[in-house]
Amino acid sequence: MLPVDDLGEPVVLDQPARVVSLVPSITEAVAVSVPSALIGATDYCTHPSTLDVSRVGGSKYPDVDKVMALNPDLVIANSEENRAEDVDRLRANGIQVWVTEAPKTIPMALKSLRRFFGTAWDLEPDWLRQAENLWRETKPARLTAVIPVWRRPWVVVGRDTFATDVLRRLGIENVYASDDERYPRPSLQELNDRRPDLVILPDEPYVFTHEDGPESFPGLPYVLVNGRHLTWYGPSLVEARESLERALDYGQG
Any residues with CB less than 8 A from the CB of 119 and at least 6 apart, and which? Predict the structure, then answer.
């Protein structure tokens, strides 16, 4: 029986030697674990910082012609970030595509990565075991928070999101965790009316700064955090827990 990707589609993975990744988190994971195999990535694949591969455009709208010109034996895509028509076009041209599902929790993400690396290269990366151990503990809830990821319009982290699970394990409850939307678009007035204990401002995809806190959330404590540590899954999870705990503890001071 052929192995299947996160969506149940069969993919032949036999030690792929020419990999193009359209998923920044997995780009980092492959670059760290099997560096010789990675030949292409998107413009938004910023880690490792020394990454030197061919670029194929944006994550949501990659240049499919550039991808095919690299003659990959595997392309890694994501069901939420990448368009089905692009995946279909790659497959129609004989290119294998492993489609991942957007993880809702840390265990879901690490399970998916464990299966991928085990299937493709019979590999269990050291960082994966470390991340599993580091994130096993869940702290008791101690604070509520709103987590904006964009402004004009305001967009916040909502239900069934990786960031919500990351913060929950650190004892931070997302006040929009039970919202109907995964990324609600409340008004700024509504955000302030929720009166969270803390406003968490990441530096991606929108680059929030110290000016955004007092300006937009007067009277509410706020903290700036590394957005990659909040939303990326893979090797970054090894350093993410300590980084976020340090930032969040500072934000309460």
Answer: 3, 13
Residue 171 has pLDDT above 90, yes or no: yes
Inter-CA distances, 110 with 101, 118, 128, Å? 12, 12, 7
Output b/e per residue, 143-158; b: 16+ Cβ within 10 A: bebbbbbeeeebbbbb
Res 214: pLDDT? 87
Among 119, 84, 90, CA closest to 7: 84
Whole-angstrom distance, CA of residue 122 vs CA of residue 228: 27
Q: Which two tokens stand for residue 183?
A: 């990324």
Residues near 63 by beta carbon (within 8 Å), at least 6 away in sequence? 56, 57
pTM of the model: 0.93
pLDDT at 12: 85
pLDDT higher than threshold 90 for residue 250: no
Amino acid in the structure at residue 87? V
Torsion of CA 81, 21, 52, 65, to 10 degrees: -90
Q: What is the pLDDT of residue 253?
A: 44
